[in-house]
Specification:
The protein has 205 residues and is α+β, with helices and mostly antiparallel strands. It has helices spanning 2-34, 43-79, 177-193, and strands spanning 94-98, 108-115, 118-124, 131-139, 150-153, 160-168. The chain crosses the membrane at residues 16-35, 47-70.
Length: 205
Amino acid sequence: MIRDFFRLNGKKIKNWLLLIVILFSIMMAIIYSFAKIPQEQSTFKSLLIAAVFVVTITLLIFFLFIIIWMTNQKRRNKALTHFPFNQLTSIGFQSYEINKNKIYDFTNIILLNRINDYQVIVDVNQNTPNNIDFQILFENKNPKSDNYIKWKKVFNNDKILSAKLSFNIKKNRLKSIDELNRELIKITNQLKRENFKPYIEHRQD
């Protein structure tokens, strides 16, 4: 899994390391410009201590990023081994690299499908890792809808909303992958009836 992290985020790792080094270097320069250096302590020694500190903090933050990414990806993979979610590819879901073109956001692997022209994202809720969320993206042009659909803003964009369908893997009520597919089709049909325009956030090849 760590190989996947480096394969997906090689360039972004360099960007983050450079950014962290620059920020901490600036911070240390400011501190040392105001701090009183003891007479017996040479400037070279002071700079060496600062450099060691910056490198240490950078590595700690970097390893923290890796641990968080691997933990989240492991939760996704584990949740998607449960029936019937381990059969999502049979109804058209494919692996998709999210945040691939962003400079600093780490790339993650999710499952993506298009149903009735609506993009459906499958992901595991990191706050409740036993829940698998299906988010159906659409544009926010109709503020009223049926009460059974749970709306949720995604990507910090007020123009985009999603109908979210959640399943708890420990309390799974689905009998088959076809039953799940029917529920997704049902929601997308309702969105079409209510004139919610599909929002295409992720371009598939």
